[in-house]
Amino acid sequence: MSPILQTKTLTHTYSLGTPFEQAALRGVDFHVEPGELLGIIGHTGSGKSTLMQHLNGLIKPTEGQVYFDGTDIHESKETTRSVRAQVGLVFQYPEYQLFEETVYRDIAFGPKNMGLGGAEVDIRVREAAALVGLTTEQLDKSPFALSGGQKRRAAIAGVMAMRPRVLILDEPTAGLDPRGRDEIIGNIKAFHRETGAAVVLVSHSMEEIARTVSRVVVMSGGQIVMNGTGRSIFAQGAELHAMGLAVPEVTQIVMRLRTLGIDLPCDIFTVEQAAQAILTRAGGDTDAS
Amino acid sequence: MLRDITLGQYFPGDTVIHRLDPRTKLIMVMVYLVALFSAGTALTLGMMAVFLGTIICVSKTKLCLLVRGLRPLAIILVFTGTLNIFLTPGEPIFRVWILTATYEGLRHALVLLARIGMMVMGTFILTYTTSPMNLTDGLEMLLGPLKRIRVPVHELAMIMNMALRFVPTLLAEADKIMSAQKARGADFESGNILRRGQAMIPLLIPLFMSAFRRADELAIAMESRCYHGGEGRTRMRQLRLGLRDALAGLVGALLLTAIIGLGVLGL
């Protein structure tokens, strides 16, 4: 299958020609397969947000190209515009971009900008609201009257309503409590399952990435340094640590147990896996939770 | 885009100009402006240009940054320049319809262009080489005597300091919100004035919300550190005048005397 999104030797330098000149991306070759669930991890300043904004043409590359479905997204103004609707981008703290009088109208902002008719907009708003678990009563409220987690979900629905073929989310769970986090991740998985769109999750939470995605890309210093399945990435604990990234806490515990001489597999990164492995090792009842 | 706005921006450096006391720099800018507007002949304006050029070189300010700062003024400069050329009575050069361009007008326009251009560049060098913190500290101390007549100098300086502090923050915020709305298909670049005005709503409402939120958080943070205005407040960084400030003062005095002196002599 050919990738839906692809970048070729993508390079970006901020404030070119001033003393604040700073290279954010250095020759990034990156791709997203149709319908995949991909995670991007990186330390603050590793270039992941910059990469993300290139993928729907918000920033123009200093060098290199971005291809959507095989066409250069900067080919013409129309191409860029149409790509914006097909590559949905959810920024960090998206709830700060809500502005309409009602949640309904805010979610409808994207579809309306796409030039869709009233009936189609209505279908999409209700569909997106259902995906993030917002009720019909909440749709008629002011977005500023919602709770923090609900605001965040309303803002994400605003992008989902455009029915993008690739949905990119930057730290969608930042600053939420564990329950709010689980809800958002649940919504994103539901969107992925029901629409078959590709989802790119940008995060620095290893637990979240490990639990959610099927492929992981690690960024550091404006470059892609690792690319593979969660298992293969988290097995390289020492390298990740050197980049200022921590492997999931459970994995760290398992590693410590291994150094103590307890024979456990080194590719464990969820609590459930750890429990299973420890129980198997202990030869006990594997049904116990 | 928005982040490229250079107005009021500070570019850190380590030149003599950067290290001058902000009070000296503020006074020097005033002296420079007085000298600039006393200079009306080719000789004196030329001297001012040489002075400005020297400062630009010494402070290692990039010329392109200064030119970029002038760009927003281009329309005003062209407009006033043209008005001057045609509306000053004197010896005619050529006629367009009922308008007559005169040599006197041309001279006026050139002097005006030189003055405004050099004024803007000179003041830009001040903000390019002085951190906002230093600038407001200097201003507060220079205006200190006004406290006697109950002008809230410290509060005014604090307000200015905060305003300057938040310019880049709010610009970055505006940039981010704009990107987010563009990602949802908002169009800020086409359509007539009314359309564009409407298109700003998705940007302005979140921006105001965020400005208020920040103001609120800042107020709480200041209160919780027991901030209560200027009364009895001491400074962590004391400003001290040194040899280089004395030298700068001397240069300023010489420049002003020379320009005014030449003016009196009619040169």
Which short descriptors sum up this protein?
heterodimer, A: 289 residues, Rossmann fold, 2 domains, six-stranded mixed β-sheet, B: 267 residues, mainly alpha, two-stranded antiparallel sheet, 2 strands, 3% strand, flat
Describe this structure in words.
The complex is a heterodimer of chains A (289) and B (267). With 289 residues, chain A is an alpha/beta fold. Helix content of chain A is 41%, strand content 21%. Chain A has 2 domains: 5-96 and 164-245, P-loop containing nucleotide triphosphate hydrolases (Rossmann fold, 3-Layer(aba) Sandwich); 248-284, no CATH class. Chain A contains 12 helices and 10 strands. Chain A has a 6-stranded mixed sheet with strand order 6-7-8-3-9-10, sandwiched between helices. Chain A has a 4-stranded antiparallel sheet with strand order 2-1-4-5, with helices on one face. In chain A, helix 3 (103-113) packs parallel to helix 6 (148-160), helix 4 crosses helix 6 (148-160) and helix 6 (148-160) packs parallel to helix 7 (178-195). Chain B has 267 residues and is mostly helical. Chain B has a domain at 2-130 and 240-264. Chain B has 11 helices and 2 strands, in the order H-H-H-H-H-E-E-H-H-H-H-H-H. Chain B has helices at residues 16-19, 22-38, 42-59, 63-70, 74-87, 103-129, 132-143, 153-183, 193-199, 201-223, 243-264, and strands spanning 92-96, 99-102. In chain B, a hairpin with a 2-residue loop joins strand 1 (92-96) and strand 2 (99-102).
